[in-house]
């Protein structure tokens, strides 16, 4: 099977980045107190949003295959890092040290089926696996019925 390419184009002014993806445009920015224009979420928050979006998309594909009654999923995701790494302290890693994922699944399926959906989704979600495969980020993920 051939590889599928994903691509974006961007232009930046100071810390504000305008991203074009297919027919969509969005901004990645910092708040005004950090020199940005607050036109969009910051890069790390955008990454967390990408994780939620990817988990949701894969969960919907997996649910269809499983004949799982999935009405929706609400995610709450928190990443924790020490900002000293971003500020140049070489002894501190610059990435998330922990990720906490809470998924509320809107379904009438059993707890066992929800866990099966979670496991299959996590195993196939590219964004989840990029973060997991670093082997440096402790990930705690809980999926339960809404």
Q: Any low-confidence stretches, pLDDT <50, length ≥5?
A: none
In CATH terms, what is the fold-level topology of the largest domain?
A: GMP Synthetase, Chain A, domain 3
Sketch the major β-sheet.
Answer: 3 strands, antiparallel
Amount of helix: 25-40%
How many beta-strand segments? 6
Gross geometry = globular
Specify the structural class.
alpha+beta
Strand order of the largest sheet: 1-2-3
In CATH, the homologous superfamily of the largest domain goes by the name K homology (KH) domain
Q: Helical segment tally?
A: 3
What features would you describe in this structure?
The chain is an alpha+beta fold and 146 residues long. It folds into two domains: 8-40, no CATH class; 43-145, K homology (KH) domain (GMP Synthetase, Chain A, domain 3), CATH 3.30.300. 31% of the residues lie in helices and 29% in strands. The protein contains three helices and six strands. The chain has helices spanning 43-66, 111-124, 126-132, and strands spanning 9-13, 16-21, 24-28, 72-80, 98-106, 138-145. The strands form two sheets. Strands 1-2-3 form a three-stranded antiparallel beta sheet, with no helix packed on it. A three-stranded mixed beta sheet has the order 4-5-6. The longest helix is centred in the middle third of the chain and has 24 residues, at 43-66. The chain is globular and about 50 Å long. The mean pLDDT is 96.
């Amino acid at each position: 099977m051939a590889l599928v390419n994903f691509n974006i184009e961007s232009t930046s002014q100071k810390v504000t980045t305008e991203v074009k993806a297919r027919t969509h445009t969005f901004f990645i920015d910092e708040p005004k107190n950090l020199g940005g224009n607050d036109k969009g979420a910051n890069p790390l928050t955008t990454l967390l949003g990408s994780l939620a979006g990817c988990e949701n998309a894969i969960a919907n594909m997996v649910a269809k295959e499983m004949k799982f009654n999935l009405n929706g999923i609400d995610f709450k995701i928190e990443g924790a890092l020490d900002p000293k790494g971003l500020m140049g302290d070489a002894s501190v890693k610059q990435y998330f040290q922990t990720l906490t994922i809470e998924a509320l699944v809107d379904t009438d399926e059993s707890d066992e089926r929800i866990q099966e959906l979670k496991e299959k989704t996590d195993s196939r979600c590219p964004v989840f696996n990029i973060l997991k495969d670093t082997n440096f980020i402790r990930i705690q993920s809980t999926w339960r019925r809404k």
